Amino acid sequence: MIFADRMSHYHALLFPYRLTFSVKSRIPLRLFFPVLFFLLLLCSCATLYKTSLPPLSKQDVETVLSGIQEQESRVFSCFMNGKLTVKNWIWNSDFNILIVGTKEPYRIKIEVTHPWGQPIVHVLIDRTTLQVLSFQEERLYIGAFTSEALSEFFPGNFDADLIWSVLRGHPKLLEYQGAISLGSDQISLLDHKEDVVEIIDIGPDNHLPRQVSYPQQNITMVFSDVQESQGILYARKIKVKNTKEKGSLVIENKEIGFNRTFPWQIFFIEKLPLFETFYLDDRQRSMFNDQ
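Now predict its structure.
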């Protein structure tokens, strides 16, 4: 009896208001579900109304974009050493990766190795020239640098700006003619045809870029674990997703450095003995033979 009395007491505290239905006041069954649906609709509309926020003001958009450009101007060279994880692309595994680059002149050296140290591929981009040393094929490929040519050897559809963004750990703004905001945490950059070339998602608190999408390249980059070194912001983890082919790669920085002078020998690939040289097409063969 004591237990039953306590339960009744607790029930009365938790549920102080009871809904009682008498035979005379009972709601007809044919009206019950329409009324319930109407109440649920009101609740959902109220929730959407409370959570939806207005887009960024023109001043806020300019502040975010100028902040990204200011960060870009702080770095003229960079190197990073870390881990590369590839899924649903050319490879599906973990590797070590070393990237060194300068902005002027534009030079990028990429070395991918197995975790135990065996080299897989070395990539050198020197302005408009692409060289790829494939250790598995024992070949040196030479040609003009394009995103399509690079995609034959390295996962993704990377042009010069996207490669620099991965190395830098911070997005780079593409050329644009206008900018609009359709939400409180998103900015879209438009070209002269008013087509979207870049979509920037920013954090709700700090307004720093956390995700950047490039619709024309079918590439989305996610920047996380943002750090600061001497006023330079960079992400220690960069995820690159191919929205068309569903592949992805993740680079986790173990070591990174900015604004250092690199010896010219770094930006050089030497063909090893017994390695064959292949040109990406006949036109490039004649072009490089004439140099």
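The longest helix spans residues 29-51.
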